[in-house]
Amino acid sequence: MQLSKIPKLKYTDGDNFFLLAGPCAIEGEDMAMRIAERVLEITTKLEIPYVFKGSFRKANRSRVDSFTGIGDEKALEILAKVSERFDVPTVTDIHEVSDAALAAQYVDVLQIPAFLVRQTALVVAAAETGKVVNLKKGQFMSPESMQHAAKKVTGTGNEQVMITDRGTMFGYQDMIVDFRGIPTMRQYAPTVLDVTHSLQQPNQSSGVTGGRPDMIETIARAGIVNHVDGLFIETHFDPANAKSDGANMLDLAHLEKLLTNLVAIRKTVNSL
Fold it and tell me: DAHP synthetase I/KDSA domain: from which residue to which, for each copy (predicted)?
């Protein structure tokens, strides 16, 4: 896959990593615009290719009363407005076959959630839209097994596929990142490290997922050193009151320092 194939993606001729970043879920237009504007300001300064991320619906919830979204069409329209106002590509995750054609009308990249990446019909439906497809590696899958998920996309004639590692289950309530998997998956497609989801602590007795945001820079630095093509970071200006995944999101106030450090590391790695 060539990054230049993603519509509106800037700085693709450089040697920087690319970034998928934004809130876990679209909570409203104002919050989405506020986050997109700030992330774009930072990535423009650092010449990082940037894709705005936001889920139009959250289908994978521990509790039945958890926030799932503000309405599909409403959230998708906000994603389209973000793309139009800031001239950036957007990515959202899909959960059902019917979501593929719907979301493809509004966004540039369709993301397959980790729990669903083995669902052949869903992956093929995303690929057949002609959009870029981002495959989240299942927490229960080996890096080697992701070649078969990637082939489900390319088998439709759509070569625009990337793989995202989001950690592997370690016991019941923790994740680890096996950095040995990065060079393996890069053989199949450009590989992204989902920093914030890798730091989730799922299956809490409260039904609300925990996390370790204090470790975000540690994991991100290791990813850059190990040659990931891109990073995935969920960020919010008020994580404590975010309606989804607030426990593992990066506070937007810390994003510029983090990315500045990571760009410096990337330059060093590229010079070796």
Answer: 13-265
